[in-house]
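Holo prediction. Input below; ligand is phosphoenolpyruvate.
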Amino acid sequence: MRKLIAGNWKMNGLVSSLAEIEALKGLTGSAACDIVVCPPFTLIDRAVRQAVGSPLSVGAQDCHAQANGAFTGDVSAEMLADSGARYIILGHSERRVSHGEDDEIVLAKVRAAHRAGLTTIVCIGETRHERDEGRAIEVVNEQLAGSVPGETDSRNLVIAYEPVWAIGTGLVPTHEQIEEVHATIRKGLEQRFGHDGRAVRILYGGSVKGVNAAAIFGLRNVDGALVGGASLNASDFAEIVLAAT
Ligand code: PEP
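Structure of the complex:
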């Protein structure tokens, strides 16, 4: 399966940061994987213009579930698609924790994003406490069932397994732990979408760097990565992208 490497800039990036996209274009010209950069809302339009003619796509990091209306400060999936975004990260643990987004809210946003024609990168993953209690598989299954609409077109769907304790910490699960969770997600996708579930890409996210990327990409059912910190710097991100090709 063609791998997908997505960079989540989170709440980082000014106009001057677009130089990283320019540099990334130069560094990843030979890449044989899909590459997505998800800057903050304010840079999406500029990033899309900058990516024209390159293999880079642009994504967003969140949306409102409604198409429009009296929702001060929010941005809809339709607006993002209109700005040229093609992907969207939804259900990131930072939003689940600091914005109280539960599976029901994530599900509504995924439906909204699909309605607008965006490809969703739906994040799921257990906390340290849940893993220590032996509940990682249960939590991932619950989030997968609760956050992904059954009736959706699976071609617009990407899942990112992001153990919360591995995000931004430098900690990475063992290869066995990653393969176990990814196999569980694959099984869940096949139960949900039948044969089409085999084509849904499952990304690993959590402290992916140039030094560990190739080994992670060699694991079964790992179809790419969702990258936080290392996506802010073009050469760090390019190292990961090139490890996938
Ligand atoms: C993330 O925030 O989705 C993430 C994976 O971050 P990092 O790569 O910095 O761990």
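The two ends are 11 Å apart (CA to CA). That is the main takeaway for now.
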